Amino acid sequence: xxxxxxxxxxxxxxxxxxxxxxxxxxxxxxxxxxxxxxxxxxxxxxxxxxxxxxxxxxxxxxxxxxxxxxxxxxxxxxxxxxxxxxxxxxxxxxxxxxxxxxxxxxxxxxxxxxxxxxxxxxxxxxxxxxxxxxxxxxxxxxxxxxxxxxxxxxxxxxxxxxxxxx
Length: 166
What we know:
Layout: E1 2-9, E2 17-18, E3 26-34, E4 40-47, H1 56-61, E5 80-83, H2 90-98, E6 102-105, H3 117-130, H4 134-137, E7 138-139, H5 144-165
Domain Transposase IS4-like: 2-157
Pfam families: DDE_Tnp_1 (PF01609)
Protein name: Transposase
């Protein structure tokens, strides 16, 4: 599952841009891809004015291989990617298919009721967990690499909590 969320950037700096949902105040955007249980697989930081579909392939390619305990090569590609209307693009659907990934993206200009909302809530929940950390809710760092370090630290804590529950 793939989704993104905007945050406010107080100091500006790298990877910030005018937020179209916050009256053009400076902001950043966290793009996140998770598995079916909401465990984060990869995240990307961009300016708030970056469109979601531009980061889809970067998110899929950023997934690192994980050993599952079975013989053979570790999986590093998901079987399918689910996303909302922001990720609908013919070129990106074709790019996912060339990677042997089935795209389940809601189509634009169609009535609601695609049924993806019943399974996509886990990525929304993961974004909510991520933004419970104060340093990730509002961006105070001017340098993007420092904020990305906090972002990946937050993702590691979410993974740790998921292991603790299992």
